[in-house]
Amino acid sequence: MSSTIEGFGLGLRSEHYGDFRATRQRVDWLEVISENYLVDGGKPLHFLESIRQDYPMVMHGVSLSIGSSDALDTDYLRQLRRLADRIEPAWVSDHLCWTGTRSLNLHDLLPLPYNVATLQHLTPRIAQVQDVLGRALVIENVSSYVRYRADEMSEWEFIRELVSRTGCELLLDVNNVYVSSVNHGFDAQDFIDAMPASAVRQIHLAGHEDHGQYIIDTHDHPICEAVWDLYAYTVRRLGRLPTMIERDDNIPPLHELIDELDVARSVAQAALNERKRAA
Predict the structure, then answer these.
(1) Taking Cα atoms as reference points, which of 100, 84, 30 lies closest to residue 243?
(2) What CATH code would you report for 8-252?
(3) Is pLDDT above 50 for 60?
């Protein structure tokens, strides 16, 4: 049985293995990068299984490439299933993107054209993934820096239709919504308003690099005020959802991330109080 995930979590990074093993931290759950643990043994898996005894977990992948024109990697899917059977995550997520073709991994999360042809391409692929995993796939919106001439709808309209067609669930990355809204000039609240609340399983928060006219999603800075404001709006709109902070570079001591997680708790509680008063 998978664990029930509630409250506020962090991404498990190797820099913090010792902290999590030494004492119980003020963290409700952990998200692990799936690819770091697709092995039969060794230190990463040893630490993962040890820490798993004390914290509920979810799995988050970066290599599914659900939007690629290549066939899905069935060996990779079977490895994901074995890891999921081993650590019993509450859910398994990856990104709404493509990462390469013909076995060339570009190591980036590249956006898709938002049109009917892409929906038709994705629908059987998501079904295949869900069939192998034996569970709904949780899909995350990515940050983007370009648009396609072939777009026929907005990103949020595309995501709503994808959920309707496939039964997949959503990992709503609030930072990514904000980054893309600045880069493309749309209203981030329109994106949040369009999300089907019943399908959203998790929220991501993160920092980015602001270059003025554009923003790069880097996960190497603290969360900025504009993203906190959008997170508050999201909670008022969608209610209480499991929320975590991603930090992948310039990783600070664990206590600094936990302090930032406490800010998320405070922002969420204030937004929930506003939501209750408005009801």
Answers:
(1) 30
(2) 3.20.20.150
(3) yes
